[in-house]
Amino acid sequence: MECKYDVVFSHSSAVETNCRMIARTLGRLLLLETLSMAVCCMVSLGYHENDCRAFGITLVVCSFASTALLVYGRTHELGPNRRESYIVVAFSWLLFTVFGMLPYLIGGYIPSVADAFFETLSGFTTTGATILNNIERLPHGILFWRSLTQWIGGLGIICFTIVLLPGFGNSSQLLFLSEATGVTHDKIHPQTRVMARRIWMVYLLLTAVETLLLIAGGMEPFDAICHSFTTTATGGFSTRQDSIAHWHSPYIEYIVSLFMLLSSVNFSIYIAALHRRGGLQLFSHVEVKAFLTSVGVLTVVIAIALVARNGYGAEEAFRKSLFQVVTCHTSCGFATDDYNLWPPFTWMLLVFAMLAGGCTGSTSGGIKCLRLVMIARNITNQFRQILHPNAVLSVRTEKVIDSKVNTAVLVFFAAYLLLVFVGWTLLMVCGVGLTEAMSTVISAMGNVGPGLGSFGPAFSWAALPEAAKWILSALMLIGRLEIFGFLLAFYPPTWKGSWAS
Predict the structure, then answer these.
(1) pLDDT tens-digit series, residues 127-155
(2) Measured at the alpha carbon of residue 269, what is the angle toward residues 362 and 333, in degrees to the nearest 5?
């Protein structure tokens, strides 16, 4: 069942934003990061490495900040309205990033604030772009933290907190929907906590199965867990500088490709398919068919080019093409080959995959395939309208799309391209080259990871100017919360306006 929530404007009353209630909600959310730090500290202690000190200090700081926020808002019940829910979501991601970068800074693993913020936000937003050039030298606790940030961010900070920490009550629905990405939201259960738990169980199952399969393929358990975290989150952080290519294993490449694809399908479709005991219904969904068709066509075209132009063998060409198309289309960002050495036209195909992204309601980024399907059908309708001026035409996917939703999709697409252009221009002002600026902005907005040229899959983003890193950090967060979900928190009427709750 599809459930749409519309904002209603009322000029009869202006309600002040309840800052104390927002603080209390943020304090509860910050408890999740505190628990996460405790887990990483235990990993450090298990490996007898000195990063446990950095996690211990961060754990104390997070606990103090969480307690301070809870005390400040202790007189208010948890119950944000729609406006306050968007504020909570935007600031929770910023808070998690600020506290999440402390282990890097305290331990001296990333001494620059700009770099530490970039690395942490790249983790939580599942972008996977890194400024690190010596990943193998990092202690296990830090490597685990990098992967865990992506696993938390992939499903969403709010979703994770609702599942693990009870007590949000009726406010959980508005918070969940304010963070959830997609065109519309499928209400798979009347209770938000139950719905979040079912999504989390699918997420956990995918992670566990991939971990076992990677161990069977020769990965060490620690590496397998970390890579399963970042695959199901479609994040792309690796425990190795040369990513998945480190293992030189076709088996591992195929397994990772498969789970990147599985993680980019709307999780509610899995739940519905399991509930109805009809798994094949998964492939009858319009968005899933469009997504898999795009992946298949791009893979075949690039594989043919690699055989004809780069001298690859047929199986290797297919495997390398499939992996790189999937990692770009799902916004995962792993690498098994340097596509900068491929025929130049293939770069544009991969850029299209970065823009398109995966399915709505999944962990993938990008514009999302359902929006592109709707845009394509709007274009088709425009041709029909010219030929039949009096015809009443609608956009249909699984069902007829409401005109408000259709308008929202078109506005989102226009805003997305506008932000890409603005970011592209700003990076060039910072001194970044045209190709590199274009690709890194698209990669950041789509939460993909690698770009082109000097910031392709064989390189880190450490060489970017500091100003460019802050700009790309902003674009990563804007892209993860799908533009308006983040920018709304900085729209003045959000704090004092005439919204209905």
Answers:
(1) 999 999 999 999 999 999 999 999 999 88
(2) 25
What's the count of helices (H) and strands (E) in the chain, helices before strands?
21, 4
Query: Which residue do the tokens 């202790």 mark?
Result: 74
- Contacts by residues 44-47 (CB-CB < 8 Å, ≥ 24 positions apart): 44/139, 44/140, 44/141, 46/140, 47/139, 47/140, 47/141
Task: Write out the two tokens for 15.
Answer: 């309600």
- Summarised one tens digit per residue, pLDDT across range 25-75 is 888 889 889 999 999 999 999 999 999 999 999 999 999 999 999 898 877
Closest CA to 358 of 325, 380, 323, 334: 325
- Region 191-210 average pLDDT: 86
CA atoms of 355 and 111, how far apart (whole Å): 32
Residue 470 tokens read as: 């802050």
> Cβ-count burial of 137 within 10 angstroms (0-12 exposed, 13-18 middle, 19+ buried)?
exposed
Q: What is the pTM of this model?
A: 0.89
**Cα distance between residue 375 and residue 409, in whole Å:** 8
SS3 labels along 192-216: HHHHHHHHHHHHHHHHHHHHHHHHH
Q: Alpha carbon of 61 to those of 33, 57, 65, 71, 293: distances in Å?
A: 11, 6, 6, 15, 48
DSSP run (H or E) holding 82: helix 82-100
Scanning the structure block, which residue is given the tokens 């306050």? Answer: 84
What per-residue confidence (pLDDT) applies to 176? Answer: 62
State mean pLDDT over 333-362.
Answer: 93
Say what the alpha-carbon torsion angle 242, 478, 322, 221 is, to the nearest 10 degrees.
50
- pLDDT at position 2 is 37
CB burial of 274-311 (b: ≥16 within 10 Å; e: otherwise) equals eeeeeeeebeebebbebbbebbeebbeebbebbbeeee
CA 369 to chain centre: 15
| % of the chain at pLDDT higher than 90 | 61
Phi, psi of 3 (to 5 degrees): -125, 120
The model's pLDDT over 385-402, given as tens digits with 9 standing for 90+, comes to 898 988 888 887 777 888
> Taking 60 as the threshold, does the pLDDT of residue 9 lie above it?
no
180 Rama class: left (phi>0) / alpha (psi -120 to 50) / beta? beta
Strands 15-16 and 496-497: antiparallel
| Residue 7 confidence (pLDDT) | 37
What spatial distance separates the first Cα and last Cα of the chain, rounded to whole Å?
Answer: 23
The per-residue pLDDT for 14 is 44
Residue with tokens 């500088």: 241
